[in-house]
HTH-type transcriptional regulator pecS (Streptomyces leeuwenhoekii), 760 residues
Amino acid sequence: MCMSSATPTSATPLRRRLPLAGVLRPGRPSDIWFKPALSVVAAVAPPNLILLALGRLDLAMYTMAGSLCALYAHNRPYAARARVLAWVVLGMLGGVAVALVTASLTRDAVVLVTVGALLAAAQKVLCDATRVGPPGNVVLTFISSASLFAPQSLGQVPGHLALAAAAGAWAWLVGMAPALLRPTGPERRATAHALNATAAYAEAHGADEGRARAARAAGYAAVQAAWQTLLSLPANSARATTRHALERLVVRAEVALAAPADADPERLRTWARALRGTGRVPRTGDPRTGDARTGDSRAAADELLGVEAELGARPVPLWHRLVPLAPLGVRTALGCALAGYASLALGIGRPYWALVTAAALYQANLTLTWSRAVQRVVGNLGGALVFAAVAPLAHLGQAALVLCCLLFAFGAEALISRNYWLGTLCVTPMALLITEFTGYQEPGALITERIVDTLVGALVGFAAAVAVTNRRAGDRVERAVAVADRARERAARLLAEPHAAPGALDAAHRALAAALVELRATADAAAGEWWQRALPQERVVRAEQAGHRTLAAMVRRRTDAAGPGRGDDDGGRTAMTASGGRPVDEGTGAGTAAGDTVAAVVRQWRAVRPGLDTGPMEIIGRINRCAALLQQAEDAPLRRAGLSRAEFDLLGALRRTGHELTPGELARETFSSGAAVTKRLKQLTERGLVERRGDTRDRRVAHLRLTDAGRDLVDGILPEQLAYETAVLSGMDGPRRDDLAALLGELLGQLEGRLDALRA
């Protein structure tokens, strides 16, 4: 989420590289890697052991379908986890029901593959739209695809569904059991992750640009995930006090993100470490009082007014989240179907393995899909070798077979968070061993079939991903930019109000942060697609830059309202410097009783340099601050139109003069260099907003004027800007506005006549 200091370009070139570096590199394990690993063992073992005791391991496929639901929702608070797990179990049963009924009605392999491909596409789109995962759609697709190729009669379907439902209910209980020991564990982990990610950004800030950009994106994403976790909790739950304490910690992370130079990474990490156990949530102290022990209940309530506003907000309809995923659904359906058909045509292997391999590939964009294909192939080939090594041990008896499956289930979940291919090293032998629950099968044949289906599924699936273009990716970026601009404009308008409600400011801050996270995710996803028009990278960078400046201004507004005596327990302090708004360490006792950020800066300078004349700072600092705040909101209509401020100034000069101008005249009208004007005019001419006419007497001279489109654009934007400026000045009566205009005019006249001499 960080912005480059380099001049942004207007388009992102198409990337057709297939990266290999880093694709197989193991990452750090998840903080809770052992939880899904233990959960899946606890969910799988009892049903399988019962079936083993009854001599009916041939039914284990149906209980495994329900047991694997325990893999889901480990990052959700328990109230939300209960709902998500219930929906996962119901979704699993729906897919299995369709598969079993289809299998009982026909044995035509082409029909079975087609149904499996359609189920895989539906599962992919629904899981991505609802953000159910990890493990997302892959487990559900594996279950339904395997069920399609399980021979049975229609009369057996209810019994098999009952087994899956019973195992699913047991998986639900396994998933909810940790709530008895640590009922607030998920939300504490999410908050700790946000604090740690923010601390990492605070340390990376000012260092390597690439590292800082990645750390900033990770920090904002972690904070957004923490808010999503906390906002999913019931507002009136019995643990509301704990929830509010965690919310205040996330607020501290937001403050540190806005002012990384002044954040205390060690303090943030100390809070994060304190959240690991079951002890009391650390007290941060309220930023308005500086009391690190008790805080002020009224101020704390004010601080979280925005949270209550968000709790009452209407969720985005599911349909709106499904529509943008249509290309991904088509990719999945086509790739899975073609992979299954190819496996059938070869006459080797099991078509549903090829189908599942193709379904596992599809990620947010083509570049990530390629990476997953490499990981899947390497992991499956390595897993086949692992199976060859353990097959003699597993064949010692059915008990050994079940034990090996449990060990591989644990290993798969323990390793998959480090890299997908490491997890598949265990998934592949587990899947091969499950096929032997119905009876012994020759290991060499199983390994051959698995390798063939893996290669077929990966090659055909990736080819389908290349063939089915996602041309909507660019449109999604445009929409994300527009959403971020609207969120930033609303936040800027609230900042301009002298007495904006704290709850409205906090809600606007969170909405803007969420919009920026979504913008970065959308832009990154689109950048990895092929065969699309150039992306509006310049608009993305500008929207991010303006958005982060507004977030920092909102944090300053929050901390400036704290008053004298604010403590340093917020993990980071933000104030303006005399040079125009960069954060500085406010020290102790610095407040803004008058609600003016510049006044705080002046008091600080007077404290450390009593003899310094800060009078000019009080004027120039306020002018700079007012200009920055006004510019933030006024630029929003320009960004929506795809214009920079400098480009709009050129259009405005042509509109207000009412006649043609030469490039030199435009440079003087807009106080710009000739080279800059030439570059901007070239872009505006290409967009059809300005037209050029050659001079009849001197071919070196060009005359410029607005086109009808350019005139309409200026006439549409200007009233919106004037309405905003009128609203900003509405708090001043006519005489005071006239006085201010006269004083500023006098100052401007002096500067225009003397500034060059002063600089010399």
In short: The two ends are 40 Å apart (CA to CA). The first helix runs from residue 34 to 54. The chain has a mean pLDDT of 79. DSSP finds 30 helices and two strands in the chain.
